[in-house]
Structure formats: C-alpha cells, structure tokens
Amino acid sequence: MALLEDKVVLVNGGSQGVGAGIVRAALREGATVAFTGRRAEVGEKLAAETGATFVRADLADPERVRGSVNEVIAAHGRVDSLVNAAGLTSRGSLLDTSPELFDAHIAINLRAPFFAMQAVVAHLVARGAPGTIVNIGSNCAHGGPPFLAPYSASKAGLAALTRNAAHAHRWDRIRINDLNIGWTETEGEDAIQREFHDAGDDWRERAAERLPMGKLGQVDEIADFVVFLLSDRSGVVTGSLIDWDQNVVGTTD
C-alpha cells in the first residue's frame, strides 16, 4: 500500500524546488495533492504535468493563506496533511537588513506557516480527525551564517512554533514536525548563488568538493523523508526538530 493512500495533502510553496519535489513524491505515494505558489505560469505547468491542484496564492497575505486552505477543502472535501515549504532566502546581515527585508522573511517563513497551520488544525479538530504537518525549516535555526540574519531568526521562530503547536494538539492526534534542511540543490539556490555570491556555472561542483558527502542535499531525498513524516509509518513522532544535513550542529574540528 502506498504511504499516503487516500490522503489529501496541501503543499505550500509547492510550485518549484523542494516543494515541487514533495508534490511529486506525495502523488507517487497515492495522495491527492494541492499546492500553492505565487507565479501562475509555473504553478499551472506543474499542475498540468502532475495532475495536482494548483492554488495561486501570495503567502505574504494571511488572508490568502487561510483562503487557500479553504479552497482545497472546497475542492477535495478535506485536508489531512500540510507541508509548509515556501521560504525566502534573500541575504541580509544584522547590520544591513532593512525593516522591509526583515518583515518579508517573517511574513513568508514564519507568519504564513502559522496561519496555514491555524486553518488546517482548526479544520482537523472540527472533523475530529488525526492529521500530520511538516514544516520545512533550516539548520540556520541553530544560528546560521552572518549573511542570513533575518532568515535564521525566522526559521528559529518556526522551530519553536512547531514544538508549541505539536504540544498543544498532541491529544487531537495531530502530529507536527520540523525538518531542518541544509544546503540544497534547487533552482532557487542557483539563482541566489549567482545573484549574491557571483557564482559561475560550476558552483555546484565547487560546493560539492567542500562537503563531506561530496554533494549538496537533493530534493528527491528530502521529499521522500517528508512523505515518511506525513505518513502513518512515522508512528507517534511529533514535535521533533530533525536536522537533515551533513554538518553536525554543535561540533568543531
């Protein structure tokens, strides 16, 4: 039996990168999948390719966050599982981050997951149904590099939110976990490396040479792990902050 057979899964930020990988993996495992994204052309292309339902939404707007959940419920009758995969990773240090950049990170990386979880959990509680939520966090939640100050702050907030919500709703049988991913090979990361770090076409190969496993994190591997956490095969685990990376937090050479 497929891991997500007869489940309705909503993936926020599912039109590209890690989110799109999760869309594909959840479909492969038997789920009915809906996903959100800002850009209509990108979302509609993935929907046509996979058969998933695309809901256009700017997740910086809390009303659209809640509205997108309601649209999926209207289309498919329910939501059983939620993945918050949308993320803003634009650079900013403590000294050069503007209030606008800080607010943008909080809006996408923390406020959007908060109100998506609020809507989905309220729906599950009203149904008296169990459910699962996975938040895509970052190892930057532990501190992060100087050029990711607002990003790190937002992901640290998401980690605390995950544990708070998991504790609050454990008796509702709603399991909520956070996957703190490390440096991952995506289209968005390629754009970031070129825009902020003057990277050339060989940046992936150069990065791989500096990493213990000889490669960056891979979208399909992350997606498989997320599907496992969404499924009943992950058992009773809730409130876990899982570091999915090849660098070990708290160690030194």
TrEMBL record:
Similarity-based family: Belongs to the short-chain dehydrogenases/reductases (SDR) family.
Gene3D superfamilies given in the database record: NAD(P)-binding Rossmann-like Domain
Hydrolase is among the record's keywords: no
Name assigned to this protein: SDR family oxidoreductase
Residues spanning the membrane: none
Domain of life from the UniProt record: Bacteria
InterPro entries: NAD(P)-bd_dom_sf, Sc_DH/Rdtase_CS, SDR_fam
Organism listed in the record: Streptomyces neyagawaensis
Record keywords: Oxidoreductase
The keyword Oxidoreductase is annotated on this UniProt entry: yes
Pfam families recorded: adh_short_C2
